[in-house]
UniProtKB/TrEMBL annotation:
<keyword id="KW-0479">Metal-binding</keyword>
<protein>
    <submittedName>
        <fullName>dCMP deaminase</fullName>
    </submittedName>
</protein>
<keyword id="KW-0862">Zinc</keyword>
<feature type="domain" description="CMP/dCMP-type deaminase">
    <location>
        <begin position="6"/>
        <end position="171"/>
    </location>
</feature>
<dbReference type="InterPro" id="IPR016193">
    <property type="entry name" value="Cytidine_deaminase-like"/>
</dbReference>
<keyword id="KW-0378">Hydrolase</keyword>
<comment type="similarity">
    <text>Belongs to the cytidine and deoxycytidylate deaminase family.</text>
</comment>
<dbReference type="InterPro" id="IPR002125">
    <property type="entry name" value="CMP_dCMP_dom"/>
</dbReference>
<dbReference type="Pfam" id="PF00383">
    <property type="entry name" value="dCMP_cyt_deam_1"/>
</dbReference>
<dbReference type="InterPro" id="IPR016473">
    <property type="entry name" value="dCMP_deaminase"/>
</dbReference>
<dbReference type="InterPro" id="IPR016192">
    <property type="entry name" value="APOBEC/CMP_deaminase_Zn-bd"/>
</dbReference>
<dbReference type="InterPro" id="IPR015517">
    <property type="entry name" value="dCMP_deaminase-rel"/>
</dbReference>
Amino acid sequence: MQKQQQWDTTWLLFARMMADRHSKCASKSVACVIVKDEKPISIGINGTPSQHVNCNEIYLKQAGVLYKASIDEVKDTESVLHNGRMFYRCTNQEEHHEWSKLNEIHAEINALGKLAADSTSARHATAYVTHSPCHACSLALIASKIDRVVYSTGYEYGDGLTLMRQSGIEVIHRPLTEEYFLERIFDKDL
């Protein structure tokens, strides 16, 4: 059991690193790493399809506040200069979520899509996800015959956990705390 917990933490750390380095979403950086027989077989990052405008080209989130790039100058609105571009505070803080539902592909769907494109099965694999899967991603994971889902952070729209458990998928919440990272920097056993 201890060995499995170490591998779970390792793959979650890898997923978090992939999300932090490669996600183009301004609100949440999410990654899904699918592992089978102790080997990663697919990696998915949340974002728009190739050749589409990325979320972080339109939106910026700082200190929990959502901003939007605008061609037109918006007067009497809080603004932030970021990488040479002006972003203006959104009056509707849920605006990004609505945009994301229409334009972005979730990390789990991207990872499963890559497997499907290569005719590779996810049967009996484990999905390591930085955030708990939403309802639609949970359905896709169930359909793929995944055995386990391990996630580190709860997602406010992640309502698929019960659904996956009812379908026989082992669901594990393994938080990655900042203290864990600080301890591990000096740990020679890593």
